[in-house]
Amino acid sequence: MSRSAHPAGPRYADVLPEGHHPAPPADLNALHPRVWSRTVSRNEDGVATVGGLDVKRLAEEFGTPAYFLDEDDFRARCRAWREAFGPDADVFYAGKAFLSRAVVRWLTEEGLNLDVCSAGELATALDAGMPAERIALHGNNKSAEEITRAVEAGVGRIVVDSFQEIVRVAHTAQRAGKRQRVQIRVTVGVEAHTHEFIATAHEDQKFGLPLAGGQAAEAVRRALKLDGLELIGIHSHIGSQIFDTSGFEVAAHRVVGLLREIRDEHGVELPEIDLGGGLGIAYTPEDDPREPREIATALRGIVERECAAAGLAVPRLSVEPGRAIVGPTAFTLYEVGTVKELPGLRTYVSVDGGMSDNIRTALYDADYSVSLVSRTSTAGPMLSRVVGKHCESGDIVVRDAFLPADVAPGDLLAVPATGAYCRSMASNYNHALRPPVVVVKDGEARVIVRRETEEDLLRLDVG
Ligand code: LLP
User: Fold this and answer.
1) Are residues 339 and 295 in the same domain?
2) Is the CB–ligand 1 distance for residue 240 below 6 Å?
3) pLDDT at 200
4) Which structural domain range is residue 278 located in?
5) Whose CA is closest to atom 15 on ligand 1?
6) 38 and 184 both lie in a single domain
7) Are residues 388 and 284 in the same domain?
8) Is 320 a domain residue?
9) Is 97 found in the same domain as 65?
10) What is the structure's pLDDT at 224?
11) Nearest atom within ligand 1 for CA of residue 241
12) CATH code of 215's domain
């Protein structure tokens, strides 16, 4: 089970008396490779570096808070997924995790496809040159405009999510004189071991058509009858931040079961299945995620076995990792503003960002780790809560963290593994200005998403 996304469980710092806390890490200055991107280390002055650049200089040049994204790490993860799945499969990066023009260019160059779920993501993908046939459009309530733009652009697939949408996509395609390739999103009835808000394969929820009770089979019946559609496959996404492959294996088993039913009823073998995204990453050194190779071997194995048992040709497989590619590639750099010790309770360390740049702690009770990165320290460990600057007591960045006891205003802290669902879910709460995303590679840094300005905020305020 993912520790990072689980809602319940003991919070060791909340109630335990002095001396009952788990041991702090052996070395507070260590930057654990499981949670930091590949090129992160410390220089001889003890300052953390990424891509050869030290964080103090980066903070001076780009300000804080800011996200720093390691391009080499991103590309290496893309290649690891592509190589693990091989030429008979497609890897669609889930753009909702984090999308920008630069990301689209890297994906295009590294041979990945792209899953988008809104007109904005589609526009970004097309603008940055992703060939339309490598794009998949998702969503449980795509607007007429989104469907039209996707069909007209010629996206490789639309993943349809309801009976109404089957008809809408078919009509749109017919009007455009096209036949749109579609997959049907199904819910396979798997309980993914993750936070309720990011689990998507149980039946009582808004995504997909349930296999149980026959709605998925009915959707197939309807789609096969419509001239505007080319039904190419079945899609399942069971949830996010998942650490074991068993849920995917059950999903693959049930999806192949539907392919067999379709063959038996309609005499048609659908050529593709998509098993979605959801692979977990390490937010803290205790998290132990699976490698793409292990996932690929497990998924291919189960699909091949199930197809052999059903007498089906093995369909083309696709997967949609978002977090597992971009999550570990970035960290957020903050400056400490105040340190408030509450005797007998804990020490609150306030930084210059918070829930506007990382909502995941407040929303999912997610765990993160944090390190002092502008220097090393020989001070002892201090159990701390790293909080933001927003007007809300739930504005927590890292709930329970050991920091050196001499942490002080002006120090830089960094929270690793913030590449996914942090900038993409950032808000302007309290009229915060959303931080920039700075890419670091081979000793050079460049902004790919700039920091918002007050002018940006006021431009929208037209009253
Ligand atoms: N495919 C589909 C159809 C999805 O809905 C998602 C995520 C993915 C792929 C990518 O999942 P990933 O590999 O990134 O886990 N905001 C939440 C996560 C919501 C995910 C929504 N869909 C979070 O911060 O944990």
Assistant:
1) no
2) yes
3) 64
4) 71-327
5) 278
6) no
7) no
8) yes
9) no
10) 98
11) 15
12) 3.20.20.10
Spell out the alpha helix ranges (H) of 267-359.
Answer: 292-310, 323-326
Q: Which atom number of ligand 1 is nearest to the Cα of residue 363? A: 24
pLDDT on residue 25: 86
Angle, to 10 degrees, between the axis of helix 163-175 and the axis of helix 215-225? 10
DSSP structure class, residue 327: G
Work out how many domains the chain is built from and give that number: 2
| Ligand 1 centroid from CA 321, angstroms | 8
Task: List pLDDT tens digits, range 409-453.
Answer: 999 999 999 999 999 999 999 999 999 999 999 999 999 999 999
Spatial separation of the C-alpha atoms in residues 402 and 347, rounded to whole Å: 10
pLDDT computed for residue 196 by the predictor:
60
- pLDDT score of 24: 85
Whether residues 189 and 79 fall in one domain = yes
- Does residue 419 line the site of ligand 1, with CB under 6 A? no
> Rounded to whole angstroms, what are the CA distances from 170 to 136, 167, 222, 236, 361?
16, 5, 10, 21, 41
| Ligand 1 contacts CB of residue 89 (under 6 A) | no
pLDDT at 283: 97
pLDDT of residue 267: 98
Rounded to whole angstroms, how far apart are CA atoms 236 and 225? Answer: 22
Tell which of 277, 301, 327 closes a domain: 327
CATH of the domain at 343: 2.40.37.10
Give the residues of the chain that fall short of pLDDT 50: 1-20
Do 175 and 44 have their domain in common?
A: no
Task: Please indicate, yes or no, if residue 6 is contained in any of the structural domains.
Answer: no
295 and 411 together in one domain? no
Indicate if 295 and 400 belong to the same structural domain: no
Q: Which residues are annotated as catalytic?
A: 391
Q: Is the CB of 243 under 6 A from ligand 1?
A: no
Residue 458 domain flag: no
- Which residue, 162, 156, 181, 173, is CA-closest to 233? 181
In a domain, 385, yes or no: yes
- Ligand 1 atom at minimum distance from 280 CA: 15
**Residue 94 CB less than 6 A away from ligand 1:** yes
193, HSE (Cβ side, Cα atoms, 13 Å): 11
Structural domain ending residue among the three candidates 296, 327, 358: 327
> What is the predicted pLDDT for the residue at 72?
96
DSSP 430: G
- pLDDT for res 5: 40
Q: What is the pLDDT of residue 6?
A: 36
Sign of dihedral through CA atoms 451, 452, 453, 454? negative
Distance 277 CA to ligand 1 centre (A): 6
Cβ 7 vs Cβ 196: under 8 Å: yes
What is the model's pLDDT at position 418?
98
Kindly state if the Cβ of 324 falls inside 6 Å of ligand 1.
yes
